[in-house]
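Quick one, tokens below:
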């Protein structure tokens, strides 16, 4: 059995890089931190929903607080519900995870956040969004006399609308002066056929470098630690195989109900008891990934493409 090396850890980090990140890590990678020149627009699609409120906006706030976002960043929420900027701010503020003395910082952050309402299946709203982004980029995106506007789209939406929204973004909202990236939160399909269909749909619209598929559960510390324990711990590494492990048990525990997460359970047995629907969503992505984290062989290079294959 080969000894574990620092390279093994780097290889594992490479895998983590592409597919196993939480919202914050994904956004940080996708925005290449605060050093990149030009204007950065982060668009949260499904901004009126549960994931946006509980995970995505707080993650963006944490990046802002840590100085990982360029000074020329704006955050746009997009969804069908008609909301004012103020109503969106009031909705997300309690979830940002700010301490009582961070009032001014929160106000500064919310000042960067605005909201656009529009449909997912017609170009109208996306045209307004594109115009808004372009105006911001024209104003703030100057780099050495040239203009650069980078756009990050985060789909905090039910899976049923991913394909339509991706098509709209591709036809109406691509940046013509910088990069465009699309973050897709799990579930990535509910079975092999739907995962392949989604993959080929997105693959026809965006390049692999533009696509970030994430499951925030795999960015959790416990799961990340499993990777280190498997590949970088000299005691566990030689023992982590079928000769020494009789079975692996993964327990999914959640003690609360739907709580506004209608879209979350869409197509995953919404009529079923909440626990079963929640477990079905978790099983379709997170739990399989946990199992893979236990089992996948060490990839031979640290690039995401090596990890994917
Ligand atoms: N909530 C969570 O903790 C987690 C969620 N996810 C995933 O993130 C995505 C979003 O989840 P979540 O925010 O909970 O879902 P929501 O039900 O809150 O949906 C998000 C938004 O999408 C719009 N929407 C809801 N249902 C539909 C529909 N049938 N057709 C079109 N638009 C709809 C609504 O906005 P509007 O009507 O204003 O357009 C809603 O505010 C899902 O893929 C979910 O599986 C992943 C991990 C955790
Ligand atoms: O992916 C999921 O995330 C949500 C939120 O979980 P949290 O522990 O990060 O707060 C969870 O409710 C859901 O069951 C799971 O599939």
């Amino acid at each position: 059995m080969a000894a574990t090396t620092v390279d093994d850890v780097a290889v594992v980090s490479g895998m983590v890089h592409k597919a196993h990140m939480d919202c914050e890590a994904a956004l940080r990678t996708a925005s290449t931190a605060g050093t990149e020149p030009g204007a950065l627009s982060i668009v949260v699609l499904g901004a009126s929903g549960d994931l946006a409120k509980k995970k995505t906006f707080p993650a963006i706030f944490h990046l802002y607080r840590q100085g990982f976002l360029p000074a020329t960043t704006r955050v746009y929420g997009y969804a069908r519900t008609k909301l004012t900027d103020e109503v969106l701010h009031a909705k997300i503020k309690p979830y940002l995870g700010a301490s009582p003395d961070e009032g001014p910082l929160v106000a500064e952050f919310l000042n960067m956040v605005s909201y656009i309402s529009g449909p997912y299946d017609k170009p109208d709203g996306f045209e307004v969004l594109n115009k808004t982004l372009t105006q911001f980029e024209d104003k703030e995106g100057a780099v050495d006399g040239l203009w650069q506007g980078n756009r990050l789209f985060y789909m905090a939406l039910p899976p049923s609308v991913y394909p339509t929204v991706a098509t709209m973004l591709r036809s109406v909202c691509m940046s013509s002066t910088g990069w465009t990236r699309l973050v897709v939160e799990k579930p990535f399909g509910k079975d092999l056929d739907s995962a392949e269909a989604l993959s080929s749909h997105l693959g026809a619209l965006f390049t692999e470098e533009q696509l970030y598929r994430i499951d925030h559960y795999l960015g959790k510390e416990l799961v990340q630690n499993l990777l280190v324990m498997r590949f970088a711990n000299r005691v566990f590494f030689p023992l982590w195989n079928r000769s020494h492990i009789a079975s692996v048990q993964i327990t999914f525990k959640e003690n609360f109900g739907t709580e506004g997460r209608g879209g979350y359970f869409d197509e995953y047995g919404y009529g079923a008891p909440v626990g079963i629907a929640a477990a079905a969503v978790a099983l379709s992505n997170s739990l399989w990934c946990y199992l893979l984290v236990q089992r996948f062989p060490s990839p031979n290079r640290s690039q995401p493409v090596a990890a994917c294959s």
